[in-house]
Amino acid sequence: MDSQQGTKQSLTRRRMMIMLIFVVILMGAIVGFNLFKQYAIKKYMSAAGVPAQSVTAMRVSTSQWVPTVEEVASLRALHGVTLSTESAGLIKQVLFHSGQRVKEKQILVVINNDNELAQLQVLKAALNLAKLVLERDRKQYRVKAISLLQLQNDEADYHSKLAQVAAQKALVEKKIIRAPFAGRVGITSVNPGQYVNVGDKIVNLEQTSPLLADFNVPQSLLSVLKVKQSISVTTDVWPNTTFKGEIDALSSDIDQATRNIAIQGVIHNVQERLLPGMFVMIHWQYGEPRNYLTLPQSAISFNPYGATVFVVKEGAAGKATAEQVFVTTGATRGDQIAVLSGLKPGDLVVTSGQLKLKTGIPVTVSHLVEPANNPAPTPQEH
Length: 382
Prior knowledge:
Helix Hairpins; 21 strands; 3 helices; conserved putative lor/sdh protein from methanococcus maripaludis s2 fold; elongated
């Protein structure tokens, strides 16, 4: 009985040993396979090298630039006033509607002036009587029927009545609000029968053609500033329209804080598309045309240590690599920027995909997508 149990235990130990050896061999095989796989991948990667990065690029070319200043300007009316009342009273007539164009001296509002008109008629009657008396006494004085003192009193009385009529006419005119110049009225809230006090607002009046544009430029441009120089205006309100104008006046001093000089321009606004208070862009060309190397602005990487670009260099066996180059940039226009130094005509410069590059990285140039390179872009809807 004991021998049978010993035999069973021996078989069990043998089976366990075989299973353990099998597991060890299996684990060793798995570890060996993984080590071999890593070795094979590393060997392949070292043999294959760094994969080429896909970028877009373009040749550097020379184009003609006209020195241009672009500044933000604020528009205001050539003439603009807030019409208000000189006298208190009830509004008798409102002879305009909001937004209407009005002529110079056109009557806009009449405040009740019945009492003033009645008093004016009384004074006119007294003036007519004084005139008749004066004419009669002049005839009588010629025949020595009255004294010189009487004639002088008559003349003084006539001129006094004349002045009283003129003063009363002025009081009547104070109750009539006229347009001091031709222009366009704003929105009003006054109505007939409404009582107004002295100084109450009636309506705004603006002369919108032409308009004045106020802007500032650096003092370094003072030597090329001239009155009557042509300028142009653009605005996102009318994206496909350019408004013409000219420099009208220069400030007599330089701003001490900004070292800028204030400029006033006159903008032609015949169709009245522009309105006072709008912000616009002033474009002003000066100087002779110059030739600059030109690139899309997207090609330039601006860093604290300077502006750089990546130039595509052709290598052995037709393999191209990227090389980082420092450049000095100049003025911008639209999507373009002028390069003053660091490149030469014909260099192939990366225009997109720079973030994944460093010097020596292989590249392939793709022309599927081209960056914006328009000197005068317009807004596009996508």
